[in-house]
Amino acid sequence: MTTAKKPLVIGNWKMNLDYVEAVHLGQQLGVMLKNKPAEHTDIVVAPPFVDIRSVTSIVESERIPMDVGAQHVSAHDNGAHTGEVSISMLKRLNVQWVLVGHSERRSMYAMTDEVVAATLRTVAKNGVKVVLCVGEALSVREEDGQNEFISAQLHSALEGLDENYRELVTVAYEPIWAIGTGLTASTEQVGEMTSHIRSVLFKLSLSEARVLYGGSVNGDNASSLVAESNVDGFLVGGASLKADSFMTIIQSCDECYDGKR
Ligand code: 13P
Q1: pLDDT tens across 243-257, in order?
Q2: Which whole-number Å values give the CA distances from 111 to 99, 106, 153, 237, in the listed order?
Q3: How far lies 138's CA from each of 39, 174, 176, in Å?
Q4: What are the structural domains, with CATH classification, of the chain?
Q5: What's the whole-number mean pLDDT along residues 47-69?
Q6: pTM of the predicted model, to two decimals?
Q7: Could you give the angle at the alpha carbon of 180 between the alpha carbons of 242 and 183, nearest 5°?
Q8: Pick the catalytic residue: 104, 136, 174, 255?
Q9: Which end of the chain is more exposed for a tag (fewer CB within 10 A), N or C?
Q10: Does the CB atom of residue 255 touch ligand 1 within 6 A?
Q11: What is the C-alpha separation between 211 and 193, in angstroms, rounded?
């Protein structure tokens, strides 16, 4: 981490934990953060939709220093969209962040680049922070096409974004081949891609956006990744489901930021 941007760690709980389990994990994190506060790191958890109200309730009542995010939202404001959830519904629950374009949405639920761009604008125009997820498949990396692929995803989602919305954007680089596979990208691969993403963001007048890495981040690899690869934090799947490992990742970012200031 060579920039002085405030680190950000987001736990994407994916389709795990019912509302009772979600409350339990939230409470565990609350106790741990009280005992050992993260002084510099912004923390977000993104539970499944049906858990959000329970998690925001305990975050608010127990004053846990973390925000609650959503994993997805409809690009539409309201109407006949069976099974979807709108941004105004999420705002009502005090959701402050939304992941947009996660590779699992893109590949399993046919979320196209156009829908990603429209969803990003729907979230931003409502004043909610957006985490734009980008990442290449293994076949793309094997042909060394990752830089062009990621540029295209960034351009298609962010080009022409109203300047008022720029401060709401974070980018998460999650190579598909590293998600849930235990195959973490090397610090070198993450570092190279982070620099590439920053150069594209600069051209898009988005230099202030934080750039996160996601893909098999855990308590063991977080500190070397954050220290050596120029990322501003992490988007964590599996390791965010356990309070211990999620806290270790948060502390790695916190300590690294402290050391580099
Ligand atoms: P894992 O950390 O389980 O690999 O998941 C990464 C991810 O997809 C977070 O959004």
Answers
A1: 999 999 999 999 988
A2: 13, 4, 12, 20
A3: 37, 12, 7
A4: 8-260 (3.20.20.70)
A5: 97
A6: 0.96
A7: 115
A8: 174
A9: C
A10: no
A11: 10
